[in-house]
Amino acid sequence: MSDVETTDDLVFIIDDSSIKSGFETDSNEKPEPRRAITLARRLAVLLLVVAVGSVIYPRVVGPIVHDRSSEMLEQRLASDLKNGVAPISNPIEPGTPMALVEIPSSNVRAVVVEGSTATELSRAAGHLTGSAIPGQPGVAAILGRSRDFGAEFANLDRVNVGDEIVVSTGQGRHEYEVIDITTRSLNDLAAFKGEGHMLILTTLTGDKDRLVVRASLTSQVFPAGEPASHRTSIEELGLEGDNGSTTSMVWWLVFGAVLAMAWPFVVTRVGTRVAWMLMTPVAMWCAFEVWSALALTAPASR
């Protein structure tokens, strides 16, 4: 053991390159997991917004959009009735307002458009393409929602046998008397069958049941126009949502994910405040489209 001479001054020789390399190692290892966590949080927020919106949209936002659309459709129908150009013969373009249904005893009033897919029923009640036009010979069928969007037929369960139903079309005022009210299985296609000159109003009352109100024409029978050459699909019977809306929803979700990933880049370019101003309206537009498409995937007459 050698002797070591000590002094009051201690000198430490430290390799500063090891310190530098140590710091560089930490800085290179930490950002990657941090970026992954941040991205995961943004995507989680995106999914949360979609989930919450899927519940709120049909009952809060949907009715507001529906009421505005329904009001415009009724104004258009009133103008067409006044000018004598309301459709009374096939073919009728889907989405065209063609009738107004009123049940005074149950506070039911609904403008009716041609077609009964989820898209049409998000705007108004829908006439089943291929069935008779109200007031004309045969069985006319009209579907409406009981819960989501405008829920025109929410009070259909208050209708009683003997109640009067009034339908206004381009041929005038047609009066029906309710003859029976039944609850059938969702898949029971007999709900759309009748005899003579009848009107069928139907809506879903649960996941497996359909409320069916049948009424007999008591006023004058008007001549029919051209018969409809149409093959009814499952979507038009209210059994499925709009198949095309699923694809639309997926594309909008992808767009929303791109927005979430682009946020840091936009912030570094224009700053946080400007980024919020630019991205917020786009994000709201994207969310609205996702909620709208998601709502249309549910059965059409719910």
Primary descriptors:
302 residues, alpha+beta, Sortase, Chain: A, 8-stranded mixed β-barrel, 5 helices, 8 strands
Would you kindly provide a written description of the structure presented here, covering whatever features stand out?
- With 302 residues, this protein is α+β, with helices and mostly antiparallel strands.
- It has one domain: Sortase (Sortase, Chain: A), CATH 2.40.260.
- Helices cover 41% and strands 19% of the residues.
- It is built from five helices and eight strands, in the order H-H-E-E-H-E-E-E-E-E-E-H-H.
- The chain has an eight-stranded mixed barrel.
- Helix 3 links the parallel strand 2 and strand 3.
- Helix 2 packs across helix 5.
- It is elongated.
- The chain starts with 15 loop residues before the first helix and ends in a 7-residue tail after the last helix.
In short:
The chain is an alpha+beta fold. Helix content is 41%, strand content 19%.
DSSP, total strands? 8
Largest sheet: 8 strands, mixed, barrel
CATH topology (level 3) name:
Sortase, Chain: A
Q: How many structural units, i.e. domains?
A: 1
CATH class designation: Mainly Beta
The fourth-level CATH homologous superfamily is: Sortase
Strand order of the largest sheet: 1-2-3-4-7-8-6-5
Secondary structure tally, helices: 5
Give the rounded overall mean pLDDT.
Answer: 81
User: Which radius of gyration do the C-alpha atoms yield?
Assistant: 31 Å
The best one-word shape is elongated
**Secondary structure: helix percent:** 40-55%
- State the end-to-end distance: 94 Å
